[in-house]
Design a protein that fits this description.
The protein is 53% helix and 11% strand. The protein has three helices and two strands. Strands 1-2 form a two-stranded antiparallel ribbon. The mean pLDDT is 84.
Length: 108
């Protein structure tokens, strides 16, 4: 039991010592890509949750990639078919909406 766990209010500490984080931390705030991500639990729970989150993001990326490939196959197949022109246009519009440009601000 760490003395800091019985502290009445919030206590912020920065450490690279894994055993210290494992024994004393009750919540972890991870700064990643200019965003703060909150995790409940000690350091091992943080690592496990972060890995699961990364795996889920990778699965989402793969599924979205497959969906885009499938839609583009459909578009390329029926692009010049007059009966399906409106459907092709709606699929292209849907794909354009998926790719919203991200504004990146330079670090000063």
């Amino acid at each position: 039991m760490c003395l800091m766990q019985s502290w009445a209010s919030t206590l912020l500490f920065v450490s690279h010592d894994r055993s210290f984080l494992e024994n004393c931390a009750t919540d972890i705030i991870h700064l990643h890509s200019r965003r703060l991500e909150y995790y409940k639990g000690d350091y091992s729970v943080f690592l496990k949750t972060k890995d699961e989150k990364l795996k889920n993001q990778q699965k989402e990326y793969e599924a979205q990639k497959m969906f885009i490939e499938h839609t583009m196959e459909f578009v390329n197949k029926f692009r010049y078919n007059a009966k399906r022109a409106s459907l092709v246009q709606s699929k292209l519009k849907m794909l354009e909406k998926m790719f919203v440009p991200v504004c990146v601000f330079p670090i000063v």
